[in-house]
Every structure is written in C-alpha cells, then in structure tokens.
Amino acid sequence: MERKLIGVTLVFSLLITACGGTRSAADVEPQPTAPLPTAGLAGEPVSVYPVTLMLAEDSLGWQDYVQPRREALDRADSLIAAFLTERAPEVNWMLPADLRRAAGRAPGMLRDPDKMGTSILRTPFDRTPDPLRSQMRTLSGVVGGNYALVPASLIFYAESGGRGRAELTLVIVDVRLAQTSWRTVATGKGSDPWQATWEALKTLAPGLP
Hints:
- Helix content is 33%, strand content 22%.
- The longest helix is centred in the middle third of the chain and has 19 residues, at 69-87.
- Helix 2 (69-87) runs parallel beside helix 5 (193-202).
- It is an alpha/beta fold.
- The chain has 5 helices and 6 strands; from the N terminus they run H-E-E-H-E-H-H-E-E-E-H.
C-alpha cells in the first residue's frame, strides 16, 4: 500500500513539473475580447447595470484608487457610460443613473440596481439564477427593453513595470428569457486602474481610435 502511495505521489509531482507548476492569474494569457454586438442591438433600449464588484491585487498598490469604494465604483460606471455613448451611439443605452431613478420611484417593488447580485454573472450561466432573474425582469418591465448589459466584475492584476491589467467581465442578458446572449472579458493595461479600464473598453470596439 505504501509503495502505491509513493508511486501516485511521484506521478502527480511529475505532472505538475511538466505543466510548469501552478500559474498565477497574471501569468495566464487573456483570451481575445469579443466585440460588442451593437449591430443586433441598434435602435434598441438596453439597460446598463452598475459595477458592483471591483478588486485589485495588493501588489499593485492601487488601494488608494479603489477606495472609497462608492467613489471608485461610480468612476468605473462613468467610464463605461462614456465609452458606450461615444463609441456605440446606435444603441439606446439606459445607464445606471436611469435605472437608479426608476428603482427610486418604486422602492417597495423595484430592487436598487446597486444592491442586486449582478456580480454572480462573472460565472458563466446559461440562465440567470433567481432572485436576480426576477429582479432584472421587474426593473426592465418599468424602464423598457428586453436586453441588459451587465459589468459583472472589474478586477486588476499586477503586470511587470509597475503597470496593471484590467479584466472587465461583461454579459448581455435577454431579460425575457433570463438567458445570456453574449459574454466576454475585456482586458487592458495601464499605469492606473482608469487607464487600464479604458484600454479594456476600447477592445470592445475594434477599428475605432
């Protein structure tokens, strides 16, 4: 029995060595960003949800940028809103401020979009789980439109030379069917989180400056 355990351990160790050992998130090459599918959304109202999950690796030293949390989240929202309205004006984007106003008019019926569990969508789902599914459907019934663009997470990883890499997970949900119709992780590098985020957003519209 002891020989078998030693043999299994040796094989496992060799496999780890052959694969190069454990790799950190910064070592993994990001997948290409899928362009934002604006052609199929042109003229449609699309709800844009606020960012609720933003994290930075401690080694970046960007904690002062991402705190206070509310201010940092608002700045990320403003960058996303600026990108969408400037570079994809063919879509009728209903921005986080619009969703907040709608929810504020019916606080007992509509969930505050800043307090919805949209960050769960950073994990791939074929169908949006409840209670998020029913919350999004109810809000869309008030603001209009069948689709929602959800920034599920914004995470910053350390790169060489003191730079950082933003990874922005974005999902488009067909709210009627509670199904994910598009998903990507946009990546960009910069000397601060906002430059990295903007560079990540630019990959969603290739061909534009």
